[in-house]
Amino acid sequence: MSIEDIKKSLESKMDQSIGALKNNLTKIRTGRANPALLDTVQVDYYGSMLPISQVANLSLLDSRTISVQPWEKGMGAKIEKAIRDSDLGLNPSSMGDLIRVPMPAMTEERRRELTKVVRTEGEASKVAVRNLRRDANEAVKKLVKDKLASEDDQKRCEADVQKATDKHIIEIDRLVASKEQDIMAV
Q1: Bridge partners of residue 57, in order along the sequence
Q2: In the chain, at which end, N or C, are there fewer CB atoms within 10 A of the end residue's CB?
Q3: pLDDT at 33
Q4: CA 73, 53, 37: angle at the middle one, nearest 5?
Q5: Confidence class for position 103, pLDDT limits 50, 70, 90
Q6: What CATH code would you report for 35-102?
Q7: Does the pLDDT of residue 3 top 90, yes or no?
Q8: Residue 182, pLDDT score
């Protein structure tokens, strides 16, 4: 593995960490409805647990209501129960074949709790990025030890790795601040 390979791998893995953070932040609800909120809810479908999106059509009725349209008639009650039993604090109601999932208004206290969750997610992503930095630096040190790279190459690579780390940490901070702003907006 060369120094260039290490840098490319590092960038790719750090970008994946940012992608994972974005994905996790979409699941934290603001006041608005988002069908991605229900991605974690599993429904019993003939003995196997499946995500709701694989047994029903999810869409928005308005900015505060998600509609769930089961693909099979008998699944409505199971989907409704799965949403109610999830830890999302949602209370679905069915209207014939359609299940409506209204987003409850958020209290100030709940908003503050969610900002703490967002900060925790951000910190976990920063730790992941810093661990990637450490792994890359150790890989470069191993190349120098095995006489496959010079110490000058090591210094340059460590500087590049630090720049990549700083860039990704700034992006994480930006994403966290943006999500906190979304949550605190009334």
Answers
A1: 69
A2: C
A3: 76
A4: 120
A5: confident
A6: 3.30.1360.40
A7: no
A8: 83
Is residue 106 a contact partner of residue 117, using CB atoms and an 8 Å limit? no
Residue 42 has pLDDT above 70, yes or no: yes
Query: First CA to last CA across the chain, in angstroms?
Result: 51
Q: Is there a contact between 66 and 38 (Cβ–Cβ < 8 Å)?
A: yes
Query: Which among 17, 186, 6, 179 is positioned nearest to 105, based on CA atoms?
Result: 186
Dihedral of CA 5/143/17/175: which sign? negative
What ranges do the domains of the chain cover? 3-27+107-184, 35-102
User: Tokens 């340059």 sit at which residue?
Assistant: 156
- 90: nearest Cα among 81, 182, 57: 81
| pTM of this structure | 0.70
The structure tokens listed for 134 are: 């450490």
Superfamily of domain 3-27+107-184: Ribosome-recycling factor (1.10.132.20)
